[in-house]
């Protein structure tokens, strides 16, 4: 052994020096890969250890952790991890091979996804020595289609989120990518540039996920967000269609409130929002109604005027008077934001006319009856005038009341249970006091009948008559009836047919008789008279009368 002089040291013989070390390697699935590892001098044993790649199921990058958006502030990006973050796991130990026992290389004959990670080679001169390690080398599997253009999965291009809540914008590529980038610009920004907000490695099982999330959405984060992705760190980002990220708050910057106009004129209801909308809705309810508004019109605004939900009525109708509410949606299935209602009032007009007038009614005591009186436009006052059915008594005003209904055009008179004393001639009178306008309808007759059982006071008995002769089939009731009916059951037949129906004749409406002016053979049979009273649907039949034709006598010479 050589002497060691003071101030000098002797090189230990168990030091391991590597002449070849494993390199970061990218390969395709199932391909063969060699990780080289050779020492300068012989070694006794080799060892390979493995560490996994960073987790792929990362949470969505949160832009809330970034500095506030500004056109001058620099936004830091997430660094791509290139070194292992866990302790190595020894996988294999074996004697060094080669002529000089200095080769520790390994080969993967068919690389699998499970083998991706950081691989570290180690060697030692004797089994009692500690291992000396190389720097870890990253083994990763790349997609052979990295050279193809990047395409993005399709998602909604409008996202609506309430301020202060969490939210996310989806972005996913159809093939693996290396890096994602998000950029932003204001909604009303006229300049074409975007502000780069955040960059980070693609995540997910197949490195196709670039979505971002917001823990606490701020109003200043509203705008157009554009997702970009690339497979090569030296290449430019391929960008997807911008996503309109909207805070769920709408301000109506122009809005009609109170509109007064005459019927038939044009009306413009203005409704402009402070941000783009995808759908407009207009609903209506009557001014004095507590019902839910009725959706009347739904449409998509023009792309050039996507803030504008205004509508125009070319010819406003009385039916359209009331409260009109403008609603907007920022996304197709998003929240409906409604503006304060606009009141549309139609001014009175002296060009009033009747749309419906009362008609003659015959009904029974206690039944419901309505004398209709509807006008073409709003009126202020209704009045009903009455006089008896018979006699010359003067007409008197029975009832006065304001117009009813949502549109102020209904002056109808309703009897829930009409009584006999309401029988008479009725006229409807409408007026607009402010315009000194009065209009009166023609009279209508209301006849009220007592409910009574049909009884017959006169009936024909069986009749024999020569063929071709004339005969009166007598049928008179004991009280008034509304309708008469005659039916015939022919000889040698079981079928009954209705021959005639008609209103009862006579001043008292009791006569249901009919005359056969020329009796024929096919009219032989049983004739039945029936009658029904007002307010009933069923007929009461009298006992039938048999009609027979006499054969002419034979004269012998």
Automatic annotation (TrEMBL):
Residues of the Ig-like domain: 12-132, 149-244, 248-345, 348-440, 442-548
TM region(s), chain numbering: none
Q: Which domain of life is it from?
A: Eukaryota
Q: Which Gene3D superfamilies match?
A: Immunoglobulins (2.60.40.10)
Q: Which PROSITE patterns match?
A: IG_LIKE
State what protein this is by name: Ig-like domain-containing protein
Q: Which species does the entry assign this protein to? A: Ooceraea biroi
């Amino acid at each position: 052994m050589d002497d060691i002089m003071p101030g000098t040291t002797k090189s230990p013989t168990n030091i391991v020096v590597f002449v070849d070390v494993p390199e970061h390697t990218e390969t395709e699935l199932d391909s063969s890969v060699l990780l080289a590892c050779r020492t300068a001098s012989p070694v006794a044993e080799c060892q390979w250890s493995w560490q996994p790649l960073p987790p792929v199921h990362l949470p969505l990058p949160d832009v809330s952790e970034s500095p506030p958006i500004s056109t001058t502030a620099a936004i830091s990006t997430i660094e791509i991890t290139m070194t292992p973050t866990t302790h190595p796991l020894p996988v294999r130990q074996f004697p060094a091979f080669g002529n000089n026992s200095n080769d520790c290389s390994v080969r993967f004959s068919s690389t699998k996804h499970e083998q991706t990670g950081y691989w570290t080679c180690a060697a030692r001169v004797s089994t009692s020595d500690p291992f000396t390690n190389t720097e870890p080398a990253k083994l990763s599997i790349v997609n052979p289609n990295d050279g193809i253009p990047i395409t993005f999965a399709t998602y909604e291009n409008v996202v609506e989120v309430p301020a202060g809540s969490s939210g996310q914008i989806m972005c996913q590529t159809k093939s693996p990518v290396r890096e994602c980038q998000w950029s932003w610009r204001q909604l009303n920004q006229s300049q074409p540039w975007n502000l780069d907000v955040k960059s980070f490695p693609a995540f997910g099982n197949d490195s196709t996920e670039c979505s971002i999330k917001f823990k606490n959405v701020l109003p200043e984060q509203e705008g157009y967000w554009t997702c970009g992705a690339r497979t090569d760190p030296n290449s430019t980002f391929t960008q997807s269609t911008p996503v309109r990220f909207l805070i769920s708050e709408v301000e109506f910057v122009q809005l009609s409130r109170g509109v007064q106009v005459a019927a038939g004129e044009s009306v413009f209801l203005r409704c402009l929002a402070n941000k783009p909308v995808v759908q407009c809705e207009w609903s209506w309810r009557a001014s004095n109604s507590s019902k839910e508004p009725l959706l009347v019109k739904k449409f998509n605004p023009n792309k050039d005027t996507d803030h504008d939900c205004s509508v125009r009525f070319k010819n406003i109708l009385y039916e359209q008077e009331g409260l009109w509410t403008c609603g907007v949606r920022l996304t197709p299935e998003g929240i409906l934001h409604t503006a304060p209602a606009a009141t549309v009032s139609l001014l009175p007009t002296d060009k009033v006319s009747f749309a419906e007038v009362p008609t003659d009614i015959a009904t029974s005591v206690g039944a419901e009856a309505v004398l209709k009186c509807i006008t073409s436009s709003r009126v202020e006052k209704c009045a009903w005038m009455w006089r008896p059915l018979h006699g010359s008594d003067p007409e008197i005003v029975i009832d006065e009341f304001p117009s009813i209904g949502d549109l102020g055009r209904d002056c109808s008179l309703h009897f829930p249970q009409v009584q006999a004393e309401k029988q008479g001639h009725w006229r409807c009178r409408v007026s607009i006091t402010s315009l000194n306008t009065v209009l009166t309808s023609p009279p209508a007759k209301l006849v009220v009948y007592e409910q009574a059982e049909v009884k017959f006071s006169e009936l024909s008995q069986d009749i024999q008559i020569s063929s071709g002769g004339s005969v009166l089939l007598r049928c008179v009731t004991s009280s008034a009836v509304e309708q008469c009916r005659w039916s015939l059951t022919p000889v040698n037949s079981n079928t009954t047919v209705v021959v005639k129906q008609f209103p009862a004749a006579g001043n008292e409406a009791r006569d249901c008789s009919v005359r056969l002016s020329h009796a024929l053979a096919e009219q032989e049979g049983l004739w039945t008279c029936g009658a029904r009273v007002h307010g009933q649907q069923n007929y009461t039949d009298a006992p039938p009368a048999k009609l027979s034709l006499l054969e002419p006598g034979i004269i012998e010479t």
